[in-house]
């Protein structure tokens, strides 16, 4: 017999099983292959995507299916249309998972959706197997990138969506003489902005496709410039489509009980007390993501606090996304810095994880310190804002289009000249509780206004309508 005192665990068991799943996933990383990441960390190099799942299982995915009303979706005009999705690879990284989200949105309105993966490792791969099954379960047809079926589908399709610049290689390799017939109905979704993607090999057909869709204004502008200057080719009609948060992530972000449980759990595991202030960088650890400069700023902020004798709670930093095996030299450099400055008790390293939601629930401020041209978009930024967190970000790339300086966070310059401004901003948010909370709330409001899955679907719908129209006119 259930006594009232067992209420909490009973409650979680019956109503919040996914929460338990989330907690379990913090320690059992093998579970991740079954989980689709709903978040997209749009680093500009898909090979370095940080794979994170705000972490919800099949159950939630299924509920979502039934929630999408065919009539209420902005994509409902895609009903019965045949869409071929061409993914450069299939993995738990940002690009492919974002394309899968689109596949499911299209399935939700009754479109016929086919999926091919251009680059697959030889042999069996558990992640690919699981992701393909997930798609098959939801009525997406999955077939080989190279066979006749791929060619026939491309010829028959109403729309072909190429995902990432690299996927361009598929056109010549597979379609050969049919390329010109297919180009007028190709929508090219681009998430990269590093130099080595500006290769004619990948993108020579770009001028002839129906349109390109890019995650931020600054990335679109960059492509416009680089294609013209370097490759002497012209971009097709280009649409900027900011991404949105998945329903799954919003469900966790808006569930105060879940957030509290996750917060306590994560803080306990890190040895951070409830009233300590926790600043986090959640990205794959690499120089491009600027964790080294973040730690320098963090150290400077500790000095500032000491020097000015400020009365603030104790502050901590956590770097989520470590992978010693990949960035050994850089990772070692970070740890050496921490040891040398004797701040080991304040800086925590967490391995790369597929579940970011628990960390977003546990922290007080997100630091998005991507360097150089910054993020193409940086989905972690809107995810953090959904959790009512202020963001301290570099004034670069997509971050500057998401964060409103002074309102939902503070922007600082990329590079060394950003170290002191970031330190000052850390101190500001540590000293002014009210400001921190207000900024978090404003960030959340901004997400509700423009960065939900619904908004992304609206934006994509407008693009698809236009592209279909253009494709029909050219055929
Ligand atoms: C694109 O080129 C223009 C003119 O040269 C320049 O002002 C702008 O900053 C460039 N934009 C990007 C994103 O590179
Ligand atoms: C983190 O990863 C390293 C290897 O890269 C491993 O040795 C260590 O045990 C991992 N830590 C946790 C908590 O899983
Ligand atoms: C952000 O706003 C602060 C004032 O709130 C200002 O000092 C700073 O220069 C601004 N940064 C950027 C990158 O606009």
TrEMBL record:
Gene3D superfamilies linked to this entry: Glycogen Phosphorylase B (3.40.50.2000)
Domain Glycosyl transferase family span(s) in chain numbering: 264-445
CDD domains: GT4_PimA-like
InterPro entries per the UniProt record, alphabetical: Glyco_trans_1 (IPR001296), Glyco_trans_4_5 (IPR041693)
Ranges that cross the membrane: none
This protein's UniProt keywords: Glycosyltransferase, Signal, Transferase
A Pfam family: Glycos_transf_1
GO function terms (MF aspect): glycosyltransferase activity
UniProt key word Glycosyltransferase: yes
Signal peptide: 1-33
Protein name according to UniProt: Glycosyl transferase family 1 domain-containing protein
Source organism of this protein record: Ambrosia artemisiifolia
């Amino acid at each position: 017999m259930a006594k009232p005192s067992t209420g909490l665990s009973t409650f979680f068991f019956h109503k919040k099983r996914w929460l338990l799943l989330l907690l379990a996933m913090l320690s059992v990383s093998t579970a991740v292959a079954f989980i689709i990441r709903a978040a997209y960390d749009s680093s500009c190099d898909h090979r370095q995507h940080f794979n994170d799942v705000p972490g919800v299982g099949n159950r939630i995915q299924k509920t979502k299916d039934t929630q999408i009303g065919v009539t209420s979706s902005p994509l409902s005009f895609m009903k019965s249309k045949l869409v071929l999705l061409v993914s450069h690879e299939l993995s738990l990284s940002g690009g492919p998972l974002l394309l899968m989200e689109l596949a499911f949105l299209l399935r939700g309105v009754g479109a016929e959706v086919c999926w091919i993966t251009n680059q697959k490792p030889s042999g069996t791969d558990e992640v690919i197997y699981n992701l393909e099954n997930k798609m098959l379960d939801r009525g997406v047809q999955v077939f080989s990138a190279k066979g006749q079926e791929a060619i026939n589908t491309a010829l028959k399709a109403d729309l072909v969506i190429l995902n990432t610049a690299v996927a361009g290689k598929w056109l010549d390799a597979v379609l050969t003489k049919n390329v010109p017939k297919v180009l007028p109905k190709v929508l090219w979704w681009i998430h990269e902005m590093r130099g080595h993607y500006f290769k004619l090999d990948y993108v020579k057909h770009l001028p002839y496709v129906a349109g390109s869709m890019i995650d931020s204004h600054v990335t679109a502008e960059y492509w416009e410039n680089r294609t013209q200057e370097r490759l002497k080719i012209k971009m097709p009609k280009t649409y900027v489509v900011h991404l949105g948060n998945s329903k799954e992530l919003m469900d966790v972000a808006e569930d105060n009980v879940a957030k509290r449980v996750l917060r306590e759990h994560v803080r306990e595991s890190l040895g951070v007390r409830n009233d300590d202030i926790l600043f986090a960088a959640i990205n794959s650890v690499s120089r491009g993501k600027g964790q080294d400069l973040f730690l320098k700023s963090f150290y400077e902020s500790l000095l500032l606090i000491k020097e000015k004798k400020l009365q603030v709670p104790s502050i901590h930093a956590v770097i989520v996304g470590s992978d010693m095996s990949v960035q050994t030299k850089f990772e070692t450099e970070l740890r050496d810095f921490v040891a040398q400055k004797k701040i080991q008790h304040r800086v925590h390293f967490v391995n790369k994880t597929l579940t970011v939601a628990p960390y977003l629930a546990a922290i007080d401020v997100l630091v998005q310190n991507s360097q150089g041209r910054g993020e193409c978009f940086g989905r972690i930024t809107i995810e953090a804002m959904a959790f009512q967190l202020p963001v301290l970000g570099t004034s670069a790339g997509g971050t500057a289009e998401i964060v409103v300086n002074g309102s939902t966070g503070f922007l600082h310059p990329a590079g060394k000249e950003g170290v002191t401004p970031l330190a000052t901003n850390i101190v500001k948010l540590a000293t002014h509780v009210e400001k921190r909370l207000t900024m978090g709330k404003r960030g959340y409001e901004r997400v509700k206004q423009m960065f939900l899955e619904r908004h992304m679907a609206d934006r994509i719908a407008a693009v698809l309508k236009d592209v279909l129209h253009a494709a029909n006119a050219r055929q």
